[in-house]
Design a protein that fits this description.
homodimer, Arc Repressor Mutant, subunit A, Nucleoside Triphosphate Pyrophosphohydrolase, two-stranded antiparallel sheet, about 30% helix, alpha+beta, seven-stranded mixed β-sheet, 11 strands
Chain lengths: ~260, ~260
């Protein structure tokens, strides 16, 4: 990675000579914890605004590599499979003066940047959205140089987000909802052993609707990708629900072929 | 549309002051004719290379509007539903010197452009791909200012394409193949009345595999979106296959809900 620093305020750094102008990437990182679907967000310094982990593309980066690098730098997460889902190119999507006027942004954030950098960063950006499913427990996200906090939020309780980042999250969810019709991708979010109730809650969070228990379980088990684990003998009547794990080879085959309508 | 001309060679025009740098859109336009799936391509002046209809984004354009404008300017097609499918951001995807070295491109194409324009157009571009299904008969495509020809090609007989445009077409087809698992979108490509054989050939072209006739017909008719038309009385034994048309309200409902795995 190139580390030449063009401009510095407090510890905010930009390297505009080595970045391509007008293009950025933003990552929607999903996790599942306490039976809730969550998204990882960063809080910008000098503002009351939260943002998706995102950033710019070096001239020496492919865009996909930039997304992986940004995710790694911002969140300490490596080797995550990122899935590109949509590119956002509305004319006014990231205009800073709009954010200033709406008083969502403290001008301090760019106070001591040199004029060239200020101009560069204030120009129109087209951003490409990527999403990933990760295991919250194995991650240790850290804020980046632009941010003072890094936290997981339930998708039902998102804070104020910069620019069109709410729309970006909505679009990621729309994309995943459609994907669920032919790929059970999101089961990556579950722990190694899980109950059908946990699986159902995850699907309900993504689909944003209540599902009927027995119908859901029947359809899911019919996929043939879950292994039911034997209950451990406890000596007393065992009312605990069955635990399941994923049959990896069968899961991989299903992901390859898809479910639903086949010809 | 802004028409200030910054640079002109023969009749090649660029308006770089009013365009955003580093971003473009490319359109994969599908049609179906003589039982063949086809794609609309333009042939660049001063080269033996073909290209997808594409272009740049004005500072006053949303990216989606730019795609619609470009499609209209290049092909005379209006009010077409364009579907964004992927953004291509590899570092070397459009390097002109690479095309020159591979002798695919005659340097004449940029000979008399001023240096600023040459630099602008030779820089790295990230392009967003859109696709559309159109009725070939009702279209009258024309070459744009960069092109000398505009033709439909069968997807099995594509000519040499610039840059990564072969990959862009491949990605569009991958996207549509997956979509076919839950949405019968491509039936827009069929004429008003069609046979099951025509429908099957269209699906075979998209899926790139032979399908079993009776199984295909059974699955398709089960969707409930086709109306079988009465055969006209000809006085002799009628061996002609049945013609079908689309039940529009049912089709729209199906597109809204999707087929395949429902929860």
């Amino acid at each position: 990675m190139i580390n030449k620093t063009r401009s510095k305020t407090e510890d905010i750094e930009f390297d505009i000579d080595n970045l391509i102008p007008g293009n950025s990437v933003d990552c929607v990182i999903f996790g599942f914890e306490n039976q809730q679907l969550k998204i990882l967000l960063l809080k910008w310094k000098f503002s009351n605004l939260w943002t998706l982990p995102g950033g710019f593309i070096y001239k020496t980066d492919d865009m996909d590599s930039a997304a992986r690098r940004i995710l790694e730098e911002r969140t300490n997460l490596e080797n995550i499979f990122l899935n590109q889902f949509h590119t956002f190119g509305n004319m006014n999507r990231n205009l800073l003066h709009k954010a200033f006027n709406e008083k969502k942004l403290d001008k301090n954030i760019f106070y001591s940047l040199d004029e060239e950098t200020r101009k560069w960063i204030s120009s129109r950006f087209i951003t490409t959205g990527y999403f990933a499913f990760i295991d919250i427990k194995s991650s240790s996200p850290k804020p980046d140089y632009l941010s003072e906090k890094c936290e997981w939020f339930s998708i039902d309780e998102l804070p104020n987000l910069v620019y069109d980042h709410n729309d970006i999250i909505k679009k990621a969810l729309d994309y995943i909802r459609i994907q669920l019709n032919y790929l059970p991708v999101s089961i990556n979010l579950l722990p190694h052993k899980f109950t059908m109730q946990q699986l159902q809650k995850l699907y309900e969070d993504i689909l944003k609707k209540k599902l009927e228990r027995s119908n859901f379980q029947r359809k899911m088990l019919k996929l043939g990708i879950f292994i039911r684990m034997e209950k451990e003998y406890t000596g007393s009547a065992n009312k605990a629900p069955y635990l399941y794990c994923i049959d990896k080879p069968k899961y991989i085959e299903l992901i390859k072929n898809g479910i639903g309508f086949t010809y």
